[in-house]
Amino acid sequence: MTKGLSLFEKRRRRNRTALRARSGTRPRLSIHRSGKHIYAQVIDDAQGRTVAAASTLQGHEGATANIDAATAVGTRIAEAAKAAGVTQVVFDRGGFLFHGRVKALAEAARAAGLEF
């Protein structure tokens, strides 16, 4: 069934399967990283809606593809989620490895009060 899938897609499927098993009713903090930007969404899968979102497209201060920008996005997503009444989430890194910008975003969100 996984024949022909890229390593990224295999990691993504493995990660999402594990999340479904342990998430319960908690919303999902989903991350997408491109070459230039990083995006974060808090998604309530039970209702099928996005609760909060943040990205480097908001507050464009220049350099967007670095760890400082990812840290700022992590702080903004945590503040937006807390304003929407969400304090506990499940971290969905997709197929991205947990290092660099993804790790910086996660640590900033934790420091700003989001629990996962």
From TrEMBL:
Pfam families: Ribosomal_L18p. Coiled coil: none annotated. The keyword Ribonucleoprotein applies. Keywords: Ribonucleoprotein, Ribosomal protein, RNA-binding, rRNA-binding. GO terms for biological process: translation. GO terms for cellular component: cytosolic large ribosomal subunit. GO terms for molecular function: 5S rRNA binding; structural constituent of ribosome. InterPro entries: Ribosomal_L18, Ribosomal_uL18_bac-type, Ribosomal_uL18_bac/plant/anim. The keyword Lyase does not apply. Part of the 50S ribosomal subunit; part of the 5S rRNA/L5/L18/L25 subcomplex. Contacts the 5S and 23S rRNAs. This is one of the proteins that bind and probably mediate the attachment of the 5S RNA into the large ribosomal subunit, where it forms part of the central protuberance. NCBIfam families: L18_bact. Belongs to the universal ribosomal protein uL18 family. This is Large ribosomal subunit protein uL18. It comes from Sphingomonas jeddahensis.
